[in-house]
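hey
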């Protein structure tokens, strides 16, 4: 489900047509309602026209990944990842770039990749990698030691990329290279990935418990 965070300004006007074209489920959500959004939702926010209070509230509550929709200048000049956005899309390139971002944050797309990997390499070895990723992500969220988190970040990024979690891998590579303190954006990306892993087929080789 894609949720447009109100107010739905001109920066997001094209999303309705894109949703119809690509078959995305779409709704609008008041900023206060986004607290209840979970990792199933992808929130789109007109980041460069929102008030600071609106932005702070949105990015300090809930677990759902939030994508900044903004001008190219704002994206280039702003540390959007540090603010808590998991991705940023130029509002003048929505038709080209937003479908890519939506696919990167789709549970179904990740599960389809896992299925393909299982069919190619065998379900048992792929399941072992999934369990390893889940354990590393859970430990990284819980640790209070930035140095330990940074040391694990390259491993997480590499394994995430191998299993088709490219966006998650980029966040953890940023942790490894720039930001040993876990950012809100990386936390949201990690919670979202864990939710995807929870959806991996139970039983057989894909049992994650």
């Amino acid at each position: 489900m894609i949720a447009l965070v109100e107010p739905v300004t001109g920066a997001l006007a094209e999303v309705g047509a894109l949703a119809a074209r690509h078959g995305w489920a779409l709704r609008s959500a008041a900023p206060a309602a986004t607290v209840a959004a979970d990792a199933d939702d992808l929130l789109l926010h007109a980041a460069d026209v929102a008030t600071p209070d609106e932005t702070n509230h949105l990015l300090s509550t809930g677990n759902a990944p939030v994508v900044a929709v903004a001008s190219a200048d704002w994206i280039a000049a702003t540390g959007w990842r540090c603010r808590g956005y998991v991705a940023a899309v130029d509002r003048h390139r929505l038709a080209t770039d937003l479908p890519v971002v939506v696919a990167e944050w789709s549970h179904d797309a990740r599960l389809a990749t896992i299925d393909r990997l299982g069919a190619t390499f065998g379900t048992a070895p792929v399941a072992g990698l999934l369990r390893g990723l889940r354990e590393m992500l859970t430990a990284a969220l819980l640790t209070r030691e930035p140095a330990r988190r940074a040391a694990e970040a390259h491993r997480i990024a590499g394994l995430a990329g191998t299993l088709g979690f490219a966006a998650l891998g980029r966040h953890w590579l940023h942790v490894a290279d720039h930001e040993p303190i876990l950012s809100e954006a990386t936390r949201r990306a990690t919670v979202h990935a864990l939710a995807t892993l929870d959806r991996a087929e139970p039983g057989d080789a894909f049992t994650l418990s």
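DSSP finds ten helices and five strands in the chain. Strands lie at 2-5, 26-29, 42-46, 66-70, 87-90.
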